[in-house]
């Protein structure tokens, strides 16, 4: 049951960590999360991957669909 001033996400993590074994490791991993690690380990690689992957896939599809084929004799 939720009580006290802080009932946000912390109570859920404590409850889940106590009752669901999978969340115990997650709570420990979240302890080291800060803005620097968020940007360097998550946001930057994902953004670069989306830019590069999207550009290659979209350009590849356009190249394949609109390529100039030699005329058939």
Q: How would you describe this structure to a colleague?
A:
The chain is mainly α and 73 residues long. The protein has two domains: 1-31, no CATH class; 34-67. It contains three helices and no strands. It has helices spanning 9-19, 21-30, 35-66. α1 (9-19) packs across α2 (21-30). The protein is elongated and about 75 Å long. The protein starts with 8 loop residues before the first helix and ends in a 7-residue tail after the last helix. The mean pLDDT is 78.
Summarize the structure.
By secondary structure, this protein is mostly helical.
Terminus-to-terminus distance: 79 Å
Q: What's the quaternary structure here?
A: single chain
Helix content: over 70%
Order of helices and strands: HHH
Low-confidence stretches: none
Derived from helix and strand composition plus strand pairing, the structural class reads mainly alpha
Number of domains: 2
Number of distinct beta strands: 0
In round numbers, the mean pLDDT is 78
Number of helices: 3
Membrane topology: Multi-pass membrane protein
Pfam family, one: Form_Nir_trans
Main location: membrane
Subcellular location: Membrane
């Amino acid at each position: 049951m939720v009580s006290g001033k802080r009932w946000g996400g912390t109570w859920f993590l404590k409850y889940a960590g106590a009752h669901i074994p999978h969340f115990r490791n997650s709570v420990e991993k979240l302890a080291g999360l800060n803005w620097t690690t968020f940007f360097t380990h998550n946001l930057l690689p994902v953004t670069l991957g989306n830019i590069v992957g999207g550009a290659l896939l979209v350009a590849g599809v356009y190249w394949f669909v609109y390529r100039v084929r030699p005329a058939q004799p």
